[in-house]
Amino acid sequence: MSSHDDAARYFHHAAGIMGLSKNMQALLLTPEREMKVQIALERDNGEISTFIGYRIQHNSARGPMKGGLRYHHEVNESEVLSLATLMTWKTAVVNIPYGGAKGGISVNVKDLTQGEKDRLTRKFVDVIHDMVGPDKDIPAPDMGTNAQVMAWFMNQYSKFHGYNPACVTGKPVELHGSEGREEATGRGVVSLTERLLDKCKQNFQGSTFAIQGFGNVGSFAARRIEELGGKVVAVSDVSGGIWNPEGLDVMKLIDYAKDTGSISNFPGTDPIDNDALLASEVDVLIPAALGGVITSDNASTIRAKFIIEAANAPVTPEADEIFAHKGIIVLPDILANAGGVTVSYFEWVQNRQHFQWDVTRVREELHRILSDSFDKVWQIAEEKKISLRLAAYLLGIGRVGRATVLGGI
Ligand SMILES: NC(=O)C1=CN([C@@H]2O[C@H](COP(=O)(O)OP(=O)(O)OC[C@H]3O[C@@H](n4cnc5c(N)ncnc54)[C@H](O)[C@@H]3O)[C@@H](O)[C@H]2O)C=CC1
Ligand SMILES: O=C(O)CCC(=O)C(=O)O
């Protein structure tokens, strides 16, 4: 099964419950535009390397399309399409005025110098700039990209269209980025986890957590868990994992990872591999790296009571069914990690109003939107006796469907 088949399976299941006609299902699932472009890059040593870039614009019924830009060697058309589709439902679940898109370049960022990354980003903008922009499609950071990449994106876009910070979000705060965007996805993940645990009568304080991925999302989630009294006992990154049943000192680990480039060999911990991390005996498992890491092959090894999808699509539909039977609760990506795009929306609003919010306002508005969205999804799940994932899809697809019918085609 491809990534896109997986995303489509969740959609069809929800659309079936909603009684959507086959024609409406086809209209909502078919992407509006797919771009696949060649990016030729002159390397620092004078050689030419050729990369493939994608921007897939899935749906604009509710507003300009929105979604991250991923630099990773496994980026491919099916993955980008599935991620673009998820963005459409995600922006609808949190009810922000956007559609969904996603982009990426198939490249191993570790092989690029800073200068090469800058030029690669600009060459990508050169070929897609007419199809994106503040009222069309607004990129943001995802795996392998960050605020610096967004700054290059904005600078290059502005060369064609005039100075326009709202063309991209997740920029550095010094260059029209929003306070609180960098932490937003991880913080949002934890705020939703708190709410879920509360509903399920599980104390957050003292609960144990394992986190796969210690980049933007994983590290900010870990930091917030520690602040709120949870115990992070295992984390991993691409180089492997570490474990300490007494709990990790997250702030020290963040400094260590910054200094050494990885979490490996953090003093006072035992090494574990990524399979062992996923199978840790913890209350809450947070996959915060790649998609498709929990499948029917390893689902039976999972011992956590709750799985929080901080990453996009970490659990395959087959594994999802296994968890439903075992009573393991999954908080789905289109809600769990929506804090990032929500603060991206705040950034876009601030850029358009030329007015900067302080971090307190950002955090309060984020908390309000995520709490309301959680409550709506929870209520649908209770009423219809379905999983939180299906409930979130019902909410998201319903909003996109209504906008489509009202706006016409
Ligand atoms: N950055 C954002 O605001 C948002 C990100 N997400 C999703 O969260 C996930 C992580 O994104 P970021 O933290 O931004 O990426 P990042 O590039 O900052 O960090 C990725 C982390 O995953 C680790 N990793 C990579 N391959 C791995 C593997 N095979 N096993 C274990 N760890 C591995 C890396 O070492 C790194 O620690 C992605 O699925 C992304 O789509 C979702 C919503 C918003
Ligand atoms: O912040 C954004 O606009 C998009 C974030 C993103 O790519 C995601 O939620 O998967």
CATH superfamily of the largest domain: NAD(P)-binding Rossmann-like Domain
Could you list the spans in which at least 5 consecutive residues all have pLDDT below 50?
Answer: none
Counting helices, strands and paired strands, the structural category is alpha/beta
Instruction: Please trace the helix and strand order, writing H or E for each element.
Output: HHEEEHEHEHHEHEEHEHEEHEHHHH
If helices are DSSP runs of H or I spanning 4 or more residues, what is the number of helices? 14
> Under CATH, the topology of the largest domain is which?
Rossmann fold
What's the story with the biggest beta sheet? Answer: 7 strands, mixed
Task: Give the strand content.
Answer: 15-25%
Small molecules bound:
1,4-dihydronicotinamide adenine dinucleotide, 2-oxoglutaric acid
| Number of beta strands | 12
Distance between the termini: 31 Å
Task: Describe the structure in your own words.
The protein has 409 residues and is an alpha/beta fold. It has two domains: 138 residues, Leucine Dehydrogenase, chain A, domain 1 (Rossmann fold); 155 residues, Rossmann fold. Helix content is 47%, strand content 18%. The protein contains 14 helices and twelve strands. The strands form two sheets. It has a seven-stranded mixed sheet with strand order 9-8-7-6-10-11-12, sandwiched between helices. Strands 1-2-4-3-5 form a five-stranded mixed sheet. Strand 1 and strand 2 form a beta hairpin. The protein is globular, with a radius of gyration of 20 Å. The structure holds 1,4-dihydronicotinamide adenine dinucleotide and 2-oxoglutaric acid (AKG). The site of 1,4-dihydronicotinamide adenine dinucleotide has 24 residues, from helix 7 and strand 7. One of its GO terms (molecular function) is nucleotide binding. Keywords: NAD, Nucleotide-binding, Oxidoreductase. This is Glutamate dehydrogenase. Belongs to the Glu/Leu/Phe/Val dehydrogenases family. InterPro entries: Aminoacid_DH-like_N_sf, Glu/Leu/Phe/Val/Trp_DH, Glu/Leu/Phe/Val/Trp_DH_C, Glu/Leu/Phe/Val/Trp_DH_dimer, Glu_DH, NAD(P)-bd_dom_sf, NAD_bind_Glu_DH.
